[in-house]
Sequence to fold (375 residues):
Amino acid sequence: MSKQSFIPMAVPVLGKQELSYVTDAVKSGWISSQGRFVNKFEEQFSTFCGMKYGIAVCNGTVALHLALATLGVTHGDEVITSPISHIATVNAITLVGAKILFIDSERTSWNMDPDKIEEKITPKTKAILVVHLYGHPMDMFPVIRLARKYKLFVIEDAAEAHGAEYKGNRVGGLGDIGCFSFYANKIITTGEGGMLVSNNKNFAEKARKLRDQAYEKKRRFWHKEQGFNYRMTNVQAAIGVAQMKKIDKFIAIRRRNAHLYNSLLSDVSGITLPPEKEWAKNVYWMYSILIDKKKFGIGRDTLCKELKTHGIDSRRFFYPIHLQPLYHNFKNEQYPIAEKLSRMGLNLPSGNELTQENVKNIAQAITQIHQNSIS
Ligand SMILES: *Cc1c(COP(=O)(O)O)cnc(C)c1O
Fold:
């Protein structure tokens, strides 16, 4: 197939509005972190999440680090999280010197199994860092109940789930601090970028201070604690403000495409469709399926290669973090459901620009590959 007809995982959808706001920012001379777009983007995105405060930062990874630092999570503390996520989730925990406690995934939502959390909590546990994997929210009320009972903080890694809902509440707005990424392939983008959202004024003030070198308010260049430069630029925020006008449309496109994929793939043997629990609104950052090699005819990796010859991009799921060389000290721990998801999971194209025609072509290719492999 020709290069032009290659269907990528996602490309950022940028238009006239983005260009116009970026031009405004450049013309104004405010290209660092001062300037009207940063405040505006913080206000708009935090409101979108149903939260009072937004703290824009330079990427999603530092958003996680800043959230942990803001809550005072440090050496000797423990943080509960999922073994199947982007590496940034656990690297942030390592960066503050805390110990990671993994909880296996649940079969149905693919997120942390809420029934397995309590048994891991110890007197040293300080926070639960929830991941809303591939756009499907975590079952949050059990997490919030445990957090109250054991006085733990709840941080949401919502980098993949802008606008996803748990029982009618947008993710990022359910814990103490919600963290987002605006990397180019996320649901909205600022190129590189991230944000913390919170309803807690103290957390918001602390995060703002640490984001900006922890300058003492009344005495500039005077420092009582260690801060960082995690600021977002006005140029990034200009793109963000333009993207906010489209976020509802982007989510609607993703859901429409996911429903079309579902209807076209539901009869293909050996494919598990992505979850959407009765209490959830999945935003399908990725359109994620599981491939059962025996029933489908070929395994996930072979399907991925075959799709490439049809001009269709796809991606395996994340590797389980406890099996990564970087985290070899966890290699004897077992999280069988996370491991199984990682072995079987494949993400199909799901960008904001993906057309229904594209989805039909992808589903047709998968059906054809399946039929060839079982005949
Ligand atoms: C993308 C992502 C991050 C990191 O965000 P960056 O902006 O790339 O630093 C963190 N966690 C999850 C779950 C992600 O998908």
Notes: Residues 59-61, 85-86, 88-89, 131, 157, 159-160, 181, 183, 194 surround pyridoxal-5'-phosphate (CB under 6 Å). The longest helix spans residues 247-265. The chain has twelve helices and 14 strands.
